[in-house]
Amino acid sequence: MEQFLQHIVNGTILGGTYALLGIGLTLIFGIMRVVNFTHGELYAFGAYMTYLLVQVLELNFFVSLVLATALGVGLGAVIEFVLIRKLRSTDIDTVMLVMIGAWIALQNFWQLMFSGIAKSINHPFPTAPLVFGPISVAPVRLFVIAVAIALLVGFYLLVNRTKLGVAMRASFQDPDVAALMGVNIPLMRTLTFALGSGLAAAAGALLGPIFVVTPTMGDLVALKAFAIVILGGLGNIVGATIGGFVLALVEEFGAGYISSGYRDAMGFLLIIAVLAFKPQGLFAAKERVG
Amino acid sequence: MSARLWPWLLVAFFASVPLWIGNQYFLYILTATGIFIIAAISLNLLLGYTGQLSLGHVAFFGIGAYVAALCSLGFDLEFGATTFVFPRQPVWVGFIAAILVTAGFGWLIGRLSFKVRGAYFVIVSISFAQVMRMVALNWVDLTEGPMALNNIPPLSLWIPGEGVVGFFKKEYNYWLVLLLVVLSYVMVERIVRSRVGRAMIALRENESLARSVGVDVTRYLVVATVVSAGMAGAAGALYTHYIRIVDPDVFLFIYTVTMVIMVVTGGKGTLAGPVVGGFIFGALPEVLREVAQPEVQWILYGIAMILIVFFLPQGIVPALANWWAARRPERGAINKHARGDSPARRAKAKSP
Question: Which one of A60, A144, A188, B270 is separated from A262 by 20 to 30 angstroms, measured CA to CA?
Fold first, then answer.
């Protein structure tokens, strides 16, 4: 029972960052219809930028997290501007090939820049775990889940309750009408991709101090993010949030009770199962891509 | 010179290479390139002709490699109290088994791709390859995990007068790979020029139209994946017996990317495309190895993929064919490559 509770706690904390990755990708894949294989690399970028700012430039930890996320937004904007903007009229396979090229190039660039050796990031929180009855949690993990939840709520409000969010969604649902209403469509496309990328970078910046930072850390994450988006239904922010927590819990319990070696396989089996049996996702949304 | 003759002259030229090359390392590169060309040809059948971007293609290659290795080494598995012993098999039994098993997986993936299309199929296929890699890493009793399967015997052949000869020599492997490249090429050529191939292309060009005229889309997709998977499995088996060691890294995504980039650069949906692309990206790592770290190679591959899509979206073979046709308008007007080498379109042109 204690182990069970501990798994739930660990899964929930991991789920917060998975949810961030998921809602970032649900904007890009679900709403923009870009099969964004660089999502995992943005996650690695967030972690590496935090490493650079905290360990090399010795900046304040919290300032570094914000800066790393902002840099992720910047890199996302560059990717959209340089690669995706020109491919708007082409088919989805073409965009996929370009994104795969960008994925491989970025991943190996991190490897070249930072070497294959794992880096760790120091954080200002005490290392002694807080003990609540049968379960124990490191304070930094509580900080991570708190920030993740704040970002999730903030993002939900941004997309669903603000004028900017309406303009963003309208740009993809009906670009012509949105343009007639005075929405700057190209700007909205860049902004959506940049914000989605920023969320991935934020997830990397938050998980970097908990785990270690390696050049291939984004490899599986891109696929996991797709799993989360498909699980939650395309473009569905609440669905992606739930999907993130579901995937994290499945992984945590799978690793705990089945085999830790197959931890990462759980997500992929989940994708294959969901797509084979319920391709529209677990939480409605009838449409699909491609 | 007749157009039917020159491909065979090219084959004859490549067959003569070991007789005069002298450089064993060069022969090694050519053999490895040939194995990848077979894999690229198999991917082209799916990617180029049915339009399904199979990004888990390396899974078939890897499964073929492991099945061939395990059959030729023998293995035993414990199920509770009982131990299941699989004795060593002759190498060719393993080779055939590799093709059959991967074709079986191809059937499964083909059935699935009927339900799951486009971006979703891509994600499922990548996930499939990742799961296979994790199985290879974690099922240590069977695969030795990261310790790899070693001492895999080379392929062997019974030669009259000499008895059973192991393919320890580089020339023998080279000729064998060349033979299989030619076989794969001819097989794909036969398929795409047949009724089945026309159905595949119809499905790529306009699926709803194909359906409405009675093309059984599921069936042809399954046929394409089964053949394509079996061929990739054969390439994997060749690889295993040639390199003689296999570890879970054969499932790395980067090898799928290598196959995709070969097909896309050469020209997807053309017969010569994967061969041309295969030569370019088979030779490039060897050139780059002299001057740069391996990461640089992959960065350049990534950039090359982006540049090709932007500036040469059809690939090299169709672009060259167009250029050739434009240079000789009086003779090249009916150039098959200029029309994307599509039998469906040619059939259309012929019909009244």
Answer: A144
Most confident listed range (A47-51, A211-215, A265-269): A47-51
Residues in B touching A104 (Cβ below 8 Å): 254, 257, 298-299, 301-302, 305
Neighbours of B264 (CB within 10 A): 32
Choose the closest CB to B120 out of A111, A268, A290.
A290
Average pLDDT in chain B: 82
Of B305, B260, B315, whose CA–CA distance to B36 is shortest? B260
Q: Is A14 left (phi over 0), alpha (psi -120 to 50) or beta?
A: alpha
What pLDDT does B168 receive?
67
Q: Is the pLDDT of residue B341 over 70?
A: no
Integer Cα distance of B17 and B301 in angstroms: 28
- B residues 230..269 contacting A (CB < 8 A): 253-254, 257, 260, 264
Q: What are phi and psi of B163, to 5 degrees?
A: 75, -155
Chain A residue closest to B263 (CA)? A97
Burial class (CB in 10 A: 0-12, 13-18, 19+), A218: buried
Q: Which residues of A touch B305 (CB under 8 A)?
A: 97-98, 100-101, 104
